Amino acid sequence: MRRFLLRRLGQVIGTIFGVVTLIFFLQRLTGDPTYLLVPETATQADIDAMRAALGFDRPLIVQYLAFLKQIASFDLGRSVIQNVPVWDIIASRLPYTLQLAGGALLVACGLGIPVGIILALYRDHPASRLLASVVLAAQSMPTFWSGIILILIFAVTLGWLPPSSTGGIEHLIMPSIALGLLSMATFARITRTSLLDELSKEYVRTARSRGVPMGLLLRRHLARNASIPVITVAALEISNLLAGAVIVETVFAWPGLGQVTVQSILARDFLVVQGIVLLGAFVTVALNLAADLLYSAVDPRIRLDGSRR
Amino acid sequence: MTSATASAPLLQAGKPRRSIMRWVPVMLIALFVLAAIFAPVLAPYDPNSQNLLGRMRPPGTVSRNFHYLLGSDELGRDLLTRLIYGARVSLFVAIASVILSGVVGVLLGMLAGYLRGWVELVVMRLVDVFLSIPAILLAIITVAVLGTGLVNVIVVLALTRWPRYARIAYGQTLSVANMPYVRLAAFMGASTPRVLLRHILPNIIGAVTVVATLEFGLMVLFEAGLSFLGLGVQPPTASWGAMLSSGRNYLATAWWIATFPGLCLFLLILAVNLIGDDLRDRFDPRSQ
Fold it and tell me: What is the ipTM of this complex?
């Protein structure tokens, strides 16, 4: 267990190091990164001054080491436009994105898991086939379209919900549904597959032949055993939801990290974009690790170091 | 392992799907492809010709020389015409980026799986790094560096998505590389490119095709998403994503501007996903 953890931790550090390196070289794809940081109206003198101030006139290797050192001390730099640390911008926006992702996860699990159970238990029923088509359709809807359709129906036509921005819980409903529908299919799929796997096992047949009702069997045994892949996928899906928030936040004018990312690109505030992308990658790596660890926590039969008891 | 089960086909319940239903998505895609190819012939008007007196007219309105079958947008341009031209952008970007990322990814994946050693180490670590940045964020930061526009969107999408192909090609190559006929070919003096292209590629192309199909739908979605955010194809070029974005401002008065481009996107992506689900049934031995 300990060896596994150490090895896995080594991998995580390696990957993060790779991500930081990739971002560094990505900035230099077009040559001089100074141009990413100055407004379009800047004069040549301004650009030269900026280049010297940021150290972009130094040798590449020196810049690279400086960048690594800066990121290693959790310094994401300052926003050129707003003149505040990038961390402050992230901290002020993060709660909104977390609310949205949380709401979406609730929608995705709340709809996806029951649907998956139905699809597994009644796999040959025609209605179940129809349900599967609905799930596939929901997965094929771009979030920016489903979001707009929701606004059109519930805000513009019916007037039940506010069309955009923040406030009470009612502001969160439509963005959560738009974002959650996409992940619902993933949860339905994995729940169905893993429940079908479990249903085909001997102990299920034995229990059924002895007259154990399906409902009891489902609650007592199947739920626990079949939940393992579902939990793992949930951890991985959170990073998808956070990334998907970029677009949904723009649709609903939700003031989270996604909205500020898009605004920063249009305002040429590159360091903010860079900070958020780095954060997104760190969170993804951390969630992957969490999925691995959860996997063993839920099912003690799985030993992370590969040894068997 | 988890990702393999998570992507198991959804529609493969008991009986095989009726053959007619199987052709519906294919015909739908053919329709979009034909619309894209013959856009100048099919479209009733020029996609950029404005009619400022006929702004935001509902579907079926006639204004001056225009007959708006699906309504007009905020500059009085014919929505149907722009939808037809929008299919061009969507399909072109998706095809180009799937080919570009597919070729690069499959080549690197095959090399990593066949040569092993440091090539494997470098390529697969790179794959891990790329895949640990959420795709949309990686695309966004690359656009921020390279700038917007049609060609840049294709480059960005290819750069973001090649690891998917590399990973599948690598795994498949590993399982084929030790087959007797592959080893014999190498032993008889076949060069590495020859072994890869003649002996390994034909064996892995099935799995790659499944990934490419699902990726195609994703690329349509990504192009539309980037254009929606204003980071993709730039106006006045007709792109479904950009049309949706501008229609968003007129939801209360002109619902059709945002609704129809979204409907096109939805139908195209749904058709691709249905075909992908179908292919997965056929190529995945576990679902037999």
Answer: 0.84
